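#struct-pred
JK: can someone run the complex with NAI? inputs below
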Amino acid sequence: MNIKNVVVIGSGTMGSGIAAQLCNANIPVILLDLKTEISERAKKGIFESSPPLLIDKNKINYIIAGNIKENFDLVKKADWIVEAVVEKIDIKHELYEKILKTRKKDSIISSNTSTIPLKILSAKMSDEDKKDFCITHFFNPVRYMGLLEIVSETINDIKKINFLKNFCEDSLGKGVIICKDTPGFLGNRVGVYAMQVAMTEAIKMKLSIEEADAVFGRPMGIPKTGVFGLYDLIGIDLMADVLKSFLKELPKSDVFHEVAQEIPLMKNLIKTGYTGRKGKGGFYRMNKKEGKKVLEAINLSSKNYSPSKKIDLSIDEKVDLKKLVSRNDKYGKYAWLVISKIILYASSLIPSVTKDYNNIDEAMRLGFNWSKGPFEMLEELGVKFFVEKDSKLKTNKFIKELYDKKAETFYGKRQIYTNLETLGKVKQLAKVNKDNKSAITYEHKDYKIVEFNTKANTLDYYSMDALKKASDKNVIIINEGMQFSAGVNLNYVMDFAKEKNWKAIEKFIHHFQMTCKQLKYSNNVVVSAPSGLALGGGFEVLVQSDYVVAHTNIVTGLVETLVGLIPAGGGTTNMLWRWMQTQEAKKDPNFAPQKVFNIIGYGKTASSPMEAVPFKFLLEKDKSIMNRNKLLSVSQDLISEKKNGYKPPKQPTFKLSGGQARDKMFQTLENLFKEKKILEHGMEVGKKLAFVLSGGNTTIDKELSEDDMYALELEAFVQLIQMKKTQARIQHTLSTGRPLVN
Ligand code: NAI
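RT: done, structure tokens with the ligand placed:
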């Protein structure tokens, strides 16, 4: 068996996402809809999507758009036919009949349904056809969500299902969990229940939506969209349909019914076009007031919008569930009500829905980006604590058994859905050192793993300490969080700036530089394996590693200028050095400084390894990997291959033309200023960057060492951070997430 040609039918949100992911894997796709105009429009949508569904826009040519009337014959050639049309059973049945008549023998047919049971979808098929039919439930957006649930029945050809699983794991990069044919499968059964509990309890407790999202978010290891924000993201209308289907499919005895009734407010929002981010807004909306965009939140009782309030829970960045649920205030009470119900519900599904509780936890990670699933939460809280905290808690068989056995550490293996040697599995086997505020270090075989673990994995003095200490062995810098690192922790830097403690900032940046230098020149192999954001300081760690094993979903680049700074952890110097190795730079000493001036000056980013190479954010020697679960093993293999005879790189020297190179950059800045593309501070930041990239007060006959360049970076950084307008940019970005132009 092989999958070389795929037909996707239905070119809406999901069909487009699946087709794009097949393109990303270099597999030709025929995308069919009712009319060719619809699938052509979908193709255009894929090309223009943001965040992009394609890792390389050129791959769009792998898609051929067509319609189900004139082009249905193309189904004959397909090895796999994916149905992603509207969630209407009659339409699906009619389509299957046509597919089954046309398809070639042995092909696989799957539906992307999120709510219709497999046995209903296949009800009209012969037993022979049923063998080749299953559900492949992708999550939206397909490129970015790790989970794929494959739902099969005993009648299925198990070899085929396993083949499809391996294909989707290897080629499409998904974490594939095989599920039974039960409503909502695993991810949505627990994930949607969790959302409904969070919403219902918030309404009962009269919390504001901002309060609910502040608790049912980062403090629980859940993305900051929380529950109401997530509702808006998914679409309130879509959620309403999903709930209806759960109510239809689940027996009345299932406690899902208690939390799945559509609330009148939701009905009203949908009716008035407030379907979420795709509509006029939802629980949150962006409103324009006096020419300014203001984020507003709905009041659950009055139904009026008012400017969204930031909720300060005054808690540590680290998830500490026990502390959270033990709080003596409404937030602690809310957290306990929600967490306890989720744990009880998830554990009630064992063994009828799945015997493997780990699969539920991993489905929550892959499909909802939780950092821990309900069973890991239970282990963290402790079974005894959980059962004894609340005398009214109605436990179930699963929990009772653990309690009676006094099984405090019951968990066992992680990521059992895959045979790959994943980070999650290796972390359980490795020697752990948690003795650092911002990173955990693991020791395994002949290497160390450094896993940053701050919010968005932003970097501070402690993160650098962890890297420095690890560099006495081969190192893999990798993590399971959503982001590799969003850059230097700006809150940390601003705290010093507020005290005008410039010395502390200088000390930190110098430590950053020296740590990265140590990684680069140590006698050991250093591999960075990023996924998600690797920006600013995060990129500086990559650029000073020996190799980068990058997940295809990285977003990388140097964005410091947007907050009024320049890259000073070696980023400016190393980018300059990379561009100095080009043929053009050999001919023209000002070529590389000018090129890097543009890249850093505009804060350019790449949203895949393919896009990163032309900027030289990544090099040909680096690797691009579709399946995030493979990052660790590919990094391990690189270490094994390179460690014998490994020699650190030679320290570079720089010949730069100083004022001569600077003149042209200054001219560019003047022009941008005249055209009002930059304002005063943009000019100031640009000038500092130009000063560093041109080598400062040097001439072309002088040779600068790498340390000279680091010193220039550091000096510029410390000067910039002292400026009020840089501080204003940072404050603005910290509070709004957007850059300030000043
Ligand atoms: P959508 O409404 O965005 O797109 C459906 C597409 O199917 C439309 O382009 C429509 O013109 C086309 N279509 C309708 N009848 C057709 C027919 N007979 N032949 C060919 N095309 C036809 O829907 P969406 O959201 O992409 O959902 C598709 C499937 O994926 C549904 O089964 C849904 O339950 C499921 N799903 C949706 C998720 C989501 O987040 N939107 C997530 C996971 C699954």
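RT: quick notes.
The chain has 32 helices and 23 strands.
Residues 9-15, 33-34, 38, 68, 84-87, 91, 95, 112-115, 137, 140, 238 surround NAI (CB under 6 Å).
JK: thanks, will look after standup
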